[in-house]
Amino acid sequence: MADASQPVELSIWIAARPETVFAFLTEPDRLVQWLGRTATLHPRPSGLFRVDVNGRDAVRGEYLVVEPPHRVVFSFGYEGPDRRVPPGSTRVEITLTPHLEGVVLRLRHTGLPEADRDSHGWGWGHYASRLKSASEGRDPGQDPLGRPEIRHG
Length: 153
Known about the structure:
This protein starts with 7 loop residues before the first strand and ends in an 18-residue tail after the last helix. The protein has a seven-stranded antiparallel β-sheet. It is 23% helix and 33% strand. The protein contains three helices and seven strands; from the N terminus they run E-H-H-E-E-E-E-E-E-H. It has 153 residues and is an alpha+beta fold. The mean pLDDT is 93.
């Protein structure tokens, strides 16, 4: 059995400049190209991080650290009753490190209940792939997880 404090971690190389990828983490019109339908983002410490994922589920937290163009940390959880991961209850840290002709994105999501780690690991992998496509100038297409009948969190 995994330890309750075990984080979800992933790393992906993106053929884009750190400034480009950073914009996809902090600008609402860019963020929704790879994650969610609408976003309200105030990328500064204590600023709102809110994404309507599919018209039914919304993620809400706040930016904790914003260090352009290399690091973003925000709290994370789902709005609504009966959520195992309520708003702001977990922490997502994303670092961008220049490497070769692009950037290595590292994501670390801590504080998740053990029962939710695998699904969030899979979900972050899915969305990291979409972020890579968008950051590299390709259309990631319609998100199959963005449909209201798919429940998040």
